[in-house]
Design brief:
The protein has 4 helices and 22 strands. The chain is an alpha/beta fold. The longest helix has 13 residues.
Length: 237
């Protein structure tokens, strides 16, 4: 039975521990730079020390359990300087995950209960998909992206590196959420979201611009697709 070390003593780590145990992995502990200020155990496993102690566990699989994708990326870069390669990272899939098209899921990713992936989608490295997220055909989920519970992605949506989608966000088919962007919970994304921006609302708009989206954004969201029928141009596919 392969052993597993988690990076980050977080709520996400506790959730991942439950999947790991059910999946047959043997969690042996958690590494966290605040180890000296934490309890000795987290959900029944030892807090082993700061992150640099990863060198003590050369045979163990690893999983970075930090909610922020940008922070996950920084930790993975740091671990690389300690000799940790991509092959060291576990992929955790809850038993209820549906992936009938055998879409690839990158190392370091964790998909929680009820996540559904249809066909011809790609899930990158170190992605977190919380319970009930839906990833439709031809979606691309960039490395370190985070999908909150109940996120629904229309076909062909692209989610950029380290983007963060809150609870119950819906993304229109073919829309692009740029790298590092944040989408507030419950939002409906009808337009492309530029990198590193924060959008929220129904329809989603840049935070601070809820009085109205730009004229170009409005045109983009209402412009029919070439050869489409009305219900398709309204965002259903």
């Amino acid at each position: 039975m392969a052993s597993l070390v988690l990076i980050g003593a977080s709520g996400l780590a506790r959730e991942a521990l439950a999947i790991a145990r059910e999946s047959g992995l043997r969690p042996i502990g958690v590494l966290d730079d605040a180890a000296d200020r934490l309890p000795r155990t987290l959900d029944g496993v030892l807090v082993l020390g700061p992150i640099q102690e990863v060198v003590r566990f050369p045979e163990s699989r690893l999983l970075v359990c930090i909610r922020s994708g940008a922070t996950r990326a920084r930790i993975v870069e740091r671990l690389a300087t300690l000799g940790v390669g991509a092959d060291r990272y576990a992929v955790l899939l809850d038993r209820s995950v549906r992936n009938p098209g055998h879409c690839p899921v990158g190392p370091g990713s964790v998909l929680f209960a009820g996540v559904a992936i249809t066909v011809d989608a790609v899930v990158g490295r170190h992605v977190v998909a919380m319970p009930g997220a839906t990833i439709a055909h031809d979606c691309v989920i960039g490395d370190f992206a985070t999908l909150g519970s109940g996120v629904s992605l229309g076909g062909g949506a692209h989610i950029g590196r380290a983007a963060n989608l809150g609870l119950n966000v819906s993304v229109r088919f073919g829309a692009v959420v740029g790298a590092g962007a944040t989408i507030g919970m419950g939002s409906a994304v009808l337009d492309d979201v530029p990198p590193d921006e924060t959008w929220a609302g129904v329809p989603a708009a840049p935070v601070g611009d809820f009085g109205g989206r730009s004229a170009q954004a409005k045109r983009n969201s209402t412009k029919p697709m070439s050869g489409s029928v009305p219900w398709m141009s309204a965002g259903f596919r």
